[in-house]
Design goal:
alpha+beta; YaeB-like fold; 5-stranded mixed beta sheet; 3 helices; 5 strands; 25% helix; 22% strand; globular
Length: 110
């Protein structure tokens, strides 16, 4: 699993057990999971440049209230990992960023 320690700000970063398992699987498949940390830092710091680069956006339908981003866009990995997304939820009242799931867009169908 990738460590989220060292991220600045007052926001607490949490991950689900599902997210942790999925990251492990992606790492074994040689996905560039190291780009997750700077992507999450961009979300926490509300860095507009990073948010645009990783195509951060709100989800709709049954995923309303959640957001997703494309971590491979941060590291310029071309189209090799273009379908890789991370789904997360921000709770600004509690100052928590919860990383929910990661994988292809098919995770949104589950």
């Amino acid at each position: 699993m990738i460590s989220m320690s060292g991220l600045t700000g007052l926001m607490q970063i949490k991950t689900t057990r599902l997210f942790n398992r999925q990251v492990k699987k992606l790492a074994k498949k040689h996905f560039p999971v190291k780009v997750l940390k700077p992507c999450v830092r961009g979300i926490v710091d509300h860095d507009e440049v990073v948010l645009r680069r990783i195509k951060d956006h709100a989800l709709q339908g049954r995923w309303k209230g959640y957001r997703e981003f494309h971590p491979s866009r941060y590291g310029n990995y071309g189209h090799s990992y273009d379908g890789w997304v991370v789904v997360y939820r921000l709770d600004l009242d509690e100052l928590v960023l919860l990383l929910v799931a990661t994988g292809s867009h098919e995770i949104l169908d589950k």
